[in-house]
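USER: Write out one fold?

ASSISTANT:
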Amino acid sequence: MPPAIPPAERLLNLVIALVNTPGRMTKEQVRSSVAGYQDAASTEAFERMFERDKDTLRELGIPVLTVTHAGHGDDVGYRIDTERWSLPPVELTAAELGVLALAAQLWQDQSLRADSSRALTKLRAVGHAPEAGDLVAGLAPRVRAGGDAFAPLVDAVQARQAVRFTYHAATTGEVRVRHVEPWKLLARRGGWVLLARDRDRGASRSFRLSRIRGAVRAVGEPGAFDPPTPDELAEASRMWAGDGPERTALVAVTPDRAGALRARGTPVPADATLPPGADAVLAARDLVAVPFRLAWELAEEVVGYADAVVVLEPSDVRDEVVRLLRVAARLDRLPGRDDPATTTTTSSDPATTEVRGA
């Protein structure tokens, strides 16, 4: 004999049948055509099974209606009220779709990107604003993939389970195995950062996922350490807090280009001084003032716009842009940046994407 159909599967079969019936289904039709009810050993057993399933569906909020025949009051059937059970139409404005598109573009890892793209495609299919993507053109956050370390670290943060991995420190070049208690994942400065307690050093630290070499391995049992205190989290994330002095850069931007840079623009200072030759550059460009804290961080963003943006002031940002362009022209490799876990650099990024433990 074939194995009995599980109750959950039988309930799903009943829902499908009652939703798709053109009018109603009698008990006899349910017993003969819905998979799972043939397992009833007798009519009495079927009656108990069916009544129990109807009650379960109603408790779940599924409106199972009792329908009688117009000419025969004792001829009873059943169906699901699809009007009460169906969700209202999804009607997103262009702005709402634009925000969702912007959020979906954050995920650059292959698996997450595929899931977010499928979901967004379904929402666009029922929307009435195909131009929504134009509202956020140029504003997409740029967060590099976390690589193979991302998924196991998310699991470890949620489970409060210690991990070990090989880490390449930026300042010293040292490559060594670290044993840490993972606390939180942050999206910072275009990449992912792990805040954790370093068991070997007995102190809080932060680690760029891009500097983790090889696999991340779980150590010990889940729930092996307590969640961090607010002070511990503050210490681990201090280097990413963005509390450095703010400065203003003057950049020349091609019309209708570099939308994200323009969106952060502030009024040009009245006492702004432009370098020699700036008038020629601004002949076909707009002058934009952009607040920033780290010269290299702004330079990396500007380089991404190619010839659409020219830095006029300050000189350290302009020099960094020139250096990056020369490196790219030589097809050389850009040296790694200092790891905030071991330096005093601060960040200008006010936004944080977090994955917290339970």
About this structure: The longest helix spans residues 43-59. The two ends are 46 Å apart (CA to CA).
